[in-house]
């Protein structure tokens, strides 16, 4: 099959279109013909080599964490999907590769697409929607009447997290540029803070949860807006000991991550708040719940640009500018 291949790690390393073996499918796998795939900064970080110590990838490999497509075959133990189903997924770590014509996905990572969405729209959702769900519902346990700060509200995760937090009944503050203020308000943000002219910690206080996707300075300043017992959840690091344990890392890496996160964990403890690092995981059941929210109108995809699949490297260059509003999608793979 045709695919975009990463031949070696390297910052801004271009991906090469070439031939890769067709996916092999096990008894619990679903073979999907990919109709659309979206890009995430996670793909760029893996390409750069940032996750070499903790993720099991060796070039040459195919990147890509989001897909929408049609089922073309199912394994003998698969019961929830059949040929022709329209599906979407974030394949689990170790089995990524959506920048290709086809992929084999474990049944438990897959869900039926939300009805009335295009393949392009559906492909924009899995990773960012699962991240928002696991941060706000699973770990944050956000309840009606609570206050939530979501950094980078116009980004891929931010646009979905704002909508999910509002659905959960929270008051939502977000940081963004003035140019994106109206967009995030339409998504449901109650308080919009221009990060270029305002310091968010001077504008708000007494918050129950902060979802951070920014740098170390923003992470530390976020502690100031939380009330005692609040939660600071970061998807941009630093990884903490709980993450190291969940990943089954060796003792050296466990000690290293403990050291890297010791400062923020100490500051959080001093303020009586909880710090945790979130590295989202694949979960088809959660995608099914998210599909229901999309179908009721509680969540809608936000797409910045759509590129032909052959322009995947150009799409990478665009997301790395940091100016994308929502997600960037490549489609359709059948034009390879």
Automatic annotation (TrEMBL):
Alphabetized UniProt keyword annotations: Oxidoreductase
Keyword Protease (UniProt): no
Chain ranges of the Enoyl reductase (ER) domain: 10-330
CDD domains (alphabetical): MDR_like_2
Protein name, entry field: NADP-dependent oxidoreductase
Ranges in coiled-coil conformation: none
Organism: Mycoplana rhizolycopersici
UniProt keyword Chloroplast present: no
SUPFAM superfamilies given in the database record: GroES-like, NAD(P)-binding Rossmann-fold domains
